[in-house]
Amino acid sequence: MAEKIKNKTVFFNPFSKDNPVVVQILGICSALAVTAKLEPAIVMGMSVIAVLAFSNVIISLLRNTIPTGIRIIVQLVVVAGLVIIVNQLLLAFAYDVAMQLSVFIGLIITNCILMGRLEAFAMANRPWPSFLDGVGNGIGYTIILVIVAFFRELLGSGTLLGMQVVPDSFYAAGYENNGLMILPPMALIIVGCIIWVHRSINKDIQE
Amino acid sequence: MLDKVKPHFQEGGRLHAFHSVYDGFETFLFTPKSTSTSGTHIHDSMDSKRTMIIVVMALVPCLLFGMYNAGYQHWVAIGAVEKPFLSLMLYGFLAVLPKLVVAYVVGLGIEFAVAQWRKEEIQEGFLVTGILIPLICPVDTPLWMIAVATAFSVIFVKEVFGGTGYNIFNVALVTRAFLFFAYPAKMSGDKVFVSTDAIAGLGEGTVVDTFTGATPLGQVAVQAGEETVRITSTVGDTVTTSDMFFGLIPGSFGETSTLCILIGAAILLFAGIASWRIIVSVFAGGAVMSLIANAFSTPEYPASMLSVADQLCLGGFAFAAVFMATDPVTACRTNVGKYIYGFLIGAVAIIIRVYNNGYPEGAMLAVLLMNAFAPLIDWCVVQSNVRRRERRLKLKITDNE
Q: CB count, 10 Å around CB of B392?
């Protein structure tokens, strides 16, 4: 029973209370880079979920055999292998999005969330909780990415998932898309706003 | 009248919730009666509201000339021979009034709301910002864009950092930078700097065929690869340096006339508000950089062929030097720092203007960039003072030994 409750917190905590982006402030770089449109943000989020979950499981299985001195290298090899698989899958089945994401799929390997979870969780826990932790953190990351991308695409391009949502009558009346939303600085400001809202709701994590 | 309604706003009064609004109006209209309640204090009539009023007064020549010029450019554009002064002024007045109102309503609205929410006094910083915003925008900027940009910069540049006096960037300039990057089509090019529509029946007429509304710097930036640069007015006449000095050229509303800006500078310096160190060093930096650009002028970067006088008179350079760089909150505090800060603003403005044809004007970006560096410059100046004195102290000690 105790085990079950623990698994639950491991899975749900990263959604809000222990969110990798807005609480731990990890993975900001990719959050700025891929969120100009909703579609690449979602694909990026799913890729991170997949890589994070499976690398957590693999490292967790190997945790007792990895020599401490070279554990970072072993972790990197595992993550790199998974990232290449994800990248090849995207190139095969979602070529356009893969092109838009360009190097950022490859750069998942340098995403701090990955190393953070491997070091902090997978090295010390059994495979099933590690898997849940990976998926949970991946979803926490994806939630933030999707929120940021939603506002940036809506205000910056007037579209959602590539479909126009701002009616033509708006444009006729003089409305224009906000070009600044497409540029990376605005992603930083939106992430800042999300952190602001998040901390005002969760008073206990205010510094 | 204010005294009569005062009891309502004091503790326990009916309208206590709005006391900061009342306080703002009272101190705006009269010198405050209250004195500080603890410690020694020096008190004179120059509180920050008075300072702001003088800055606003210094901006009035630019504002009036901006009105005249907006009308003048419009009358030129429709090819009218007669240019009745009163109609010109009225046209310009009607063009700028909505922008002023929008900037003030949005900006002050946010300030009042935040002041109430934090239970603080209303800070008066927006008084100047509100008049600066219409002055540095093109005359045809849509009102809703000004509203969005003003809201953005008041919230994210000022209130987030703690309100008036704590902002690291110049609020009015961030408003313009936001407009520039968010809606580039409305903030540059040849369509926005001259108003071509009639306002309230004034200035009816069709635009002449040879009309082009590009600013002088905008024209220069597209002449890459040519042997000499040519600057023309909107209907094709050549523009002389004196035109640029007096300001009868297309441009953002209040920044075309170097003469009016200098009048404003004189008022500011006379009242002891702006720092002459910054103003002089901005112009010095601009002049030095223009000379360097002249020495290495190439057709690839056409703006490098402009003379020093043209460089300093065109665009927002003079306006930025006098009204933007001297903002005491975002500038350097140390005297040596002010020289460095001003010089770099001038130099960077010309560098951006000359070596990036995509940005015809660099004054705005230069000031914002140096705003970010101002604390660092101050820190270095203070540290070098500390080191020098340490060395002097050590020398003395060794002498004694």
A: 10
- Render pLDDT for B342-382 as a digit per residue (tens, 0 to 9): 999 988 888 888 887 667 677 888 888 888 898 899 999 99
In whole angstroms, give the CA distance from residue A107 to residue B23: 55
Are residues A181 and B182, on separate chains, in Cβ contact within 8 Å? yes
What is the phi/psi pair of residue B196, to 5°?
-105, -10
Q: Which residue of A has its CA nearest to B181?
A: A180
CA B386, B390, B393, B398: dihedral to nearest 10 degrees?
A: -170
Distance CA(B3)–CA(B11), nearest Å, equals 15
How far CA B36 is from CA of A58, A75, A102, B39, B124, in Å, comes to 68, 63, 61, 8, 19
Contact B343, B284 (CB under 8 A): yes
The rounded distance, in Å, linking the Cα atoms of B283 and B321 is 7
Nearest beta carbon to residue A179 from set B144, B148, B183: B183
Query: Cα–Cα distance between A198 and A205 in angstroms, integer?
Result: 9
Q: Which of B360, B327, B343 minimizes the C-alpha distance to B174?
A: B327
Give per-residue pLDDT as tens, B312-349: 777 778 888 888 888 888 888 888 889 999 999 988 88
pLDDT for position B195: 62
Q: Which residue of A has its CA nearest to B144?
A: A175
CB of B54 within 8 A of CB of B126? no
Residue B122 to residue B10: CA distance in whole angstroms: 15
Please report the sign of the dihedral spanned by the C-alpha atoms of residue A43, residue A84, residue A22, residue B149: negative
Kindly state the tokens that stand for B350.
């010309």
The answer, as to whether pTM is greater than 0.80, is no
Nearest to A51 by CA among A17, A75, A16: A75
Chain B residue with minimum CA distance to A181: B182
What's the gap in Å between the CA of A100 and the closest CA on chain B?
22
Phi, psi of B202 (to 5 degrees): -85, 140
Q: Which of residues 149-188 of A touch B (CB under 8 A)?
A: 174-176, 178-181, 183
Minimum Cα–Cα distance from B178: chain A residue: A180
C-alpha span between A121 and B179 (Å, rounded): 46
pLDDT tens track for B180-208: 888 877 666 555 666 666 555 555 555 55
B358 touches chain A (CB under 8 A): no
Are residues A137 and A14 in contact, defined by beta-carbon separation less than 8 angstroms?
yes
CA-based torsion, B352, B358, B363, B368: positive or negative = negative
Residue numbers in A near B185 (CB within 8 A):
176
**Optimal mutation site among A152, A157, A176, interface B, most CBs of chain B within 10 A:** A176
